[in-house]
Design brief:
FAD, binds flavin-adenine dinucleotide, 9-stranded mixed β-sheet, alpha+beta, globular, 13 helices, flavoprotein, Amino_oxidase, Amine oxidase, 24 strands, FAD/NAD-bd_sf
């Protein structure tokens, strides 16, 4: 298995080390292109799930496709590394899957992986309880059931802005702005509100513990600050939980892939490669030029090494927060440019800690404020140590995990007594190819920009989990977007073939 330069690990003995992890997402050879193919039918920029899905769908429809990726691996914000010392699979970004993710389920079935799941949480180890440690309330341990009840009551009040558990305002999460059940203006009015507005409105109905837990959960879900996180995004998420917080853990934090996300992503890549996909890793794109005057090779894609590739169509999957680094010619519309300049507000922290003993494998808890505000046990390593996943909100002002390992260790140890042996993580906020976690939008962002972000720009299509219709900010949303843009490109290529009397290809 090849090694990626992505990610960080820390141990007391070795300090912080960048990259060097075994990762199934690394593809060898790093480049496979042949002469004489250009213009490609389609160039796909970015090899995350949106790009992989688009590239696979186009290649299996016998289209010539070039996949360009800045990193040395596939998977983008979702990848798995394998510990050299313990063989443990660490999910560095996107992790959890559920059968409620329609696109994910279809892909898992396609590769016969739908039963290949493992459960994140193990009960029965020594510290089988939840530690609640929030401002304004004394620290205490409670059962997981009590903690779920407390969190659920607060969350349900928070999202219940219509007296119907948000069924009236968000009946159809796959079409939030324009659907048959609620006028767009009503949704736009709610979309103006922040999470902080809503907490202030209901906090007199909550205990100090409930306010603390709710604020922490929201901060972790949004990856932002309460004041700049859109309330609507929480409502949409609740609607996707089939309007019931009973499904919160089952849908969001329970099922992982046994072989890891990178093995799944690799299946998609390998199928595309079998059908003639070409690719180049370590190849950042710097500009995309659409020249409608040309009939052949109408779009030109230039890389940081000054190579120029051409295609009839381009599918750009570059994440929202770094789209502004790409030069588009002609320039993007004023509205899209504004959206791109603003970006999203999710700057979350996710860090794995391997800690002495197996007792904490059943533990869960929150501590707020804290750089790491939630931790939960997620399995036991082959050495008998507990694996804890820690999450934090936007802590960019307070610490940079790769530079300040002592702060990371202290943050874990402040949640519950533990001895941290090793940490493993990816800092998505300092990552030049992401500049943030999965997209969470600010108030009014959806109303103003969602439609525009999903639009094409001449012969360039834009696909990203960051502006998906349904499961925005998830693996499913990325697959949705890749699929939809591939369909649009295929239709147009088919029309071009017809116009040029070329035979039907499939
Ligand atoms: C910490 C974390 C936890 C998450 N947890 C979950 C979860 O449990 N479940 C879930 O469903 N989702 C989760 N997500 C969200 C999910 O990972 C993302 O929504 C999804 O991976 C986005 O896929 P994408 O293809 O749209 O974007 P990306 O995966 O970001 O892919 C875009 C690709 O473009 C490449 N690129 C960028 N710039 C350039 C350039 N100039 N030239 C060439 N290539 C470029 C990038 O390197 C990247 O490979 C999580 C995300 C994070 C960060």
């Amino acid at each position: 298995m090849y090694r990626t330069t992505d990610g960080y690990t820390w141990t007391k003995a070795q300090g912080t080390k960048k990259g060097g992890f075994r990762c199934r997402g690394v593809i060898e050879p790093a480049s496979k292109t042949s002469d004489g193919i250009e213009p490609y039918d389609v160039i796909v920029v970015g090899a995350g799930y949106a790009g992989l899905r688009a590239a696979r769908d186009l290649a299996t429809s016998n289209r010539s496709v070039l996949l360009l990726e800045a990193r040395d691996r596939i998977g983008g914000r979702t990848y798995t590394v394998e510990g050299d010392d313990d063989g443990f699979l660490y999910e560095m970004g996107g992790t959890y899957v559920t059968h409620h993710f329609g696109y994910v389920l279809a892909e898992l079935q396609r590769y016969k992986m739908e039963r290949d799941l493992i459960v994140s949480h193990e009960s029965g180890h020594a510290n089988d309880y939840y530690t609640l440690n929030v401002e304004g309330a004394p620290r205490r341990n409670l059962s997981h059931e009590e903690a779920a009840k407390l969190t659920t009551r607060a969350w349900d009040l928070f999202v219940d802005i219509d007296g119907a558990g948000c069924r009236k305002v968000c009946p159809l999460p796959q079409s939030q702005l324009d659907n048959i059940m609620i006028p767009r203006e009503e949704v736009e009015a709610i979309d103006k509100r922040s999470c902080l507005d809503r907490i202030n409105e209901i906090k007199h109905l909550l205990t100090a513990e409930e306010v603390g837990v709710l604020s922490t959960v929201i901060m972790l879900v949004t990856g932002g600050k309460l004041e700049n996180s859109s309330l609507w995004e929480c409502i949409r998420s609740h609607a996707l939980l089939t309007h019931s917080s009973d499904n919160f853990a089952e849908l969001w934090t329970t099922y992982k892939l046994r072989e890891g996300q990178s093995a799944f992503a690799r299946r998609i890549f390998e199928e595309a490669a079998e059908f003639g996909l070409e690719w180049a890793f370590n190849t950042p794109v710097v500009s995309i030029r659409d020249d409608p005057g040309k009939t052949r090779g109408r779009v030109q894609v230039t890389t940081a090494n000054n190579e120029v590739f051409s295609a009839h169509r381009v599918i750009c999957t570059i994440p929202l927060n770094i789209l502004k680094t790409i030069e588009f010619n002609p320039p993007l519309s004023a509205v899209r440019q504004e959206a791109v300049d603003l970006g999203h507000i999710n700057f979350m922290t996710k860090i794995h800690a391997v800690v002495e003993g197996d007792g904490l494998a059943s533990w869960n808890g929150v501590r707020s404020p804290g750089y790491i505000a939630q931790g939960y046990g997620d399995g036991v390593t082959s050495k008998g140590f507990s694996h804890i996943v820690g999450f934090g909100g936007d802590e960019r002002e307070n610490f940079t995990p790769e530079k300040e390992p002592e702060k990371v260790v202290a943050a874990f140890e402040a949640m519950h007594p533990m001895k941290v042996e090793k940490t493993v993580f990816h800092n998505w906020c300092t990552d030049p190819w992401a500049n943030g976690g999965p997209a969470w939008w600010a108030p009014e962002y959806m109303s103003k920009y969602q439609d525009e972000l999903q639009k094409r720009h001449g012969a360039i299509f834009f696909a990203s989990g960051d502006w998906a219709h349904t499961w925005r900010a998830s693996i499913d949303g990325a697959l949705e977007q890749g699929s939809l843009c591939a369909i649009d490109a295929l239709r147009e290529l088919h029309q071009m073939d017809k116009a040029n009397n070329r035979p039907y290809r499939l």
